Amino acid sequence: MKKRVYIAYTGGTIGMKRVNGRYLPIPGYLQELMAANPAFHHASLPDYTINQYDPLFDSPDMTPSDWSKIARDICDHYHAYDGFIVLHGTDTMAYTASALAFMLKDLAKPVIVTGSQIPLGEIRSDAQDNLVSSLLLASHEFVIPEVGLYFNSRLFRGCRTVKVDADGFDAFASPNYPALAALGTGVEIRERLVRRPSAPSTSDIDLREINVPAVVGAFRLFPGLSPRILENMLQPPLRGLVLETYGSGNGPTGDKEFLRVLREANARGVVIVDCTQCLKGTVDLSKYATGADLAEVGVLSGYDMTPEAALTKLAYLLSISDDVAQIRAWMQEDLRGELSR
Ligand code: ASP
Q1: Across residues 227-242, what is the average pLDDT?
Q2: Which residues pair with 164 in a beta bridge?
Q3: Could you say which of 187, 205, 212, 306 is the most buried, measured as most Cβ atoms within 10 Å of its Cβ?
Q4: Do residues 324 and 266 make contact, with C-beta atoms less than 8 angstroms apart?
C-alpha cells in the first residue's frame, strides 16, 4: 500500500509567479505546474493531497495565529495520513518550523517544512527537488517523527534552523545540531540523531496552541545601547524577551542602568532568555563577569538555542502556563531537541 502525505500549502516563493516584475502567490498555480510535470506523478512518490490556504502568504505576513492554524490543520488530518509537508515561504520558515515543533508534541509521524528560493514555474529552480525529496522523506520506511525542515539536500531538525542566505539555494543551516538526513546519490538518514518521544501519539495529538501573539519579543544588543530603549521594550504587555547578546552570552553590565532595567523586569515576572548573536556555539553565563552579572539579575541562559527557537518556545510556554517559575525552568530544559546542555 502506498503511503499518504498531506501537504499544507501556506504560500511562499515556491508557488509564486512574477506579475509586473514582482513575485506574488497565485492560487492554483503551483497545483497546475505540478499536474503538468511528470516528476510529481512518478511511481515512487506517495499519494498526496494538497490543501491550499486562503489567503496564500508571503511569509513575512504570517503571525503566531497562522502557526496555530497550521498545527490545527495537521492535527485534524493526523489519523488519515502517514506524513505531512508544510509548503512555506523561506523568510519566516525557521520560526514556523520551531513553533510547530513545540506545539506538535510526541509526534509519531514526520512533518516536513519546505519551500524554495526560486518558484517552481521558473527554469532554474530549487522547488522541484525540495518538494520531491520532502515527499520521499515524509513517506520513507524509516519514519522521522519530528518537525523537520528540508532544504537543498538536507533535512534539519526544524527547531534548530536559521535562514542564512537570502539568495543562495543553501538557504538554511542548523549550526548547533547535525542534519538528520542528507540526500546525494543515496538517501542517508542519520538514525541515531533522530529524536523519538517516549509516548508517541499514533492516533491523535494533544495540541496546545500558541495563543499569545503580542507578549514576546526579541532585542539585539549593540554597542552604545541606551538602557531606556530596552526599558521601554520591557513594559507590559511584554511577558517574555529573547535578549540577543554578544559571544558566550555577555552584555554591557558595566552600565548599572542596564542591569537595573533587567532586574526590575525580572522582578515583575518578565522571562528574559539570553541567546547569542553568534550563529554557532552556546551561551555560558559562568565564563565572564559580563555574563555572570546578567544571570545575577535573573536573565536565563538560552544555551545553544537559536533566537527563533527561543522566541517561539517562550510564546508556546506562555500559552500553556501562567506559572512563571515553571516557564523559567522549562526554558532551560530541552523539550523538543532545541537545546543541548
Ligand atoms: N518572501 C518569500 C516568503 O518568505 C521568500 C521565499 O519563499 O523564499 O514567502
Answers
A1: 98
A2: none
A3: 306
A4: no
Q: Give per-residue pLDDT as tens, 186-226.
A: 999 999 999 999 899 888 898 999 998 789 999 999 999 99
Question: How many residues are listed for the chain in this entry?
Answer: 341
Distance (Å, whole) CA 314 – CA 80: 31
CA of 116 to the centre of ligand 1 (A): 8
Q: Is 165 helix (H, G, I), strand (E, B) or coil?
A: coil
Instruction: Give the integer Cα–Cα distance in Å for 32 and 165.
Output: 29
Distance 129 CA to ligand 1 centre (A): 17
For the chain, helix (H) and strand (E) counts, in that order, are 9, 16
**Integer Cα distance of 72 and 257 in angstroms:** 44
Among 90, 95, 125, say which to mutate for ligand 1: greatest number of ligand atoms within 8 Å of CB.
90
For range 148-166, the mean pLDDT = 98
Cell of 270: 518578565
Cell of 266: 525580572
**How far does CA 55 lie from the centroid of its chain?**
21
Ordered domains of the chain (ranges, CATH): 4-207 (3.40.50.1170), 216-331 (3.40.50.40)
- Answer yes or no: are the C-beta atoms of 208 and 319 closer than 8 Å: yes
| Ligand 1 and 119: CB distance under 6 A | no
CA 84 to chain centre: 15
Owner of C-alpha cell 538514525:
191
Q: Which of 13, 96, 114, 161 is catalytic?
A: 13
Tell me how far the alpha carbon of residue 126 lies from the centroid of ligand 1, in angstroms: 13
Mark whether 10 is an active-site residue. no
* Cross-strand partners of 25: 16
List the Cα angle 137/180/174 in 5-degree steps: 120
**What's the rounded Cα separation, in Å, for the pair 157 and 146?**
7
- DSSP symbol at 126: S
pLDDT > 90? residue 316: yes
Q: Is the dihedral of CA 175, 177, 180, 185 positive or negative?
A: positive
For ligand 1, whether the C-beta of 10 sits within 6 Å is no
